[in-house]
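SEQUENCE-TO-STRUCTURE ENTRY
===========================
Question of interest: how does this chain fold, as expressed in backbone structure tokens?
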Amino acid sequence: MKTVLHTSESRGHANHGWLNAYHSFSFANWYNPERIQFGQLRVLNDDTIAAGMGFGTHPHDNMEIITIPLEGDLAHKDSMGNASTIKNGDVQVMSAGTGIMHSEFNPNHDQQTKLFQIWVFPNKRNVTPRYQQISLNLEDRTNTFQQILSPNPDDDGVWIHQDAWFHLGKFTKDSTEKYTIKKEGNGVYVMVVSGKAIINGQELKQRDALGVWDTNSFDIEMSANTEILLLEVPMED
């Protein structure tokens, strides 16, 4: 098993006032040649958006863009005609394909919005753009991993044009959970959302991440009440 540790403190950071952003991989003005991507995972941004603020209309193409709200609401509009608001418990995906324009705003004037935004390289270029949003039952991730994304439209969660599987789980202290890789050649980027966990002898605290590959499975030991995000992606094109 191979691993790479990305501590919370080693992430890129940009505080624009209206946006406080932490970057697990090179993004915008933060560039680290050793932190370009993890396999087909290109972006994992940990964003806090101030009340009433947001991203104006901007373009994307040939990228799978997944948004996971952690706190507050996010209002979305795009060039496909979608207008919706997502909140904690929802997962949103856009397959940008041949090109889309969209905007994202915190519609509330009395609270901030926190979210993860994730970009994954697609396995097909120039697909027809698509939008999907679902609401999940948060109870279904208690002491287990709830699948929130896969390559299959018939599976649980949203789907994308890539052999990727995402899971979220909330675990009690001293529990252990085994994760088995879904597809040979894939790796898993493990982000500790909150709490503490140990993988392969490496302790991870809040917002630390460990990339794991060249293995069929691995165990996660919870040294506190812990929430974990698993991003399984192909390690090669």
In short: Residues 5 and 178 are 19 Å apart (CA to CA). The two ends are 20 Å apart (CA to CA). The first strand starts at residue 2 and ends at 6.
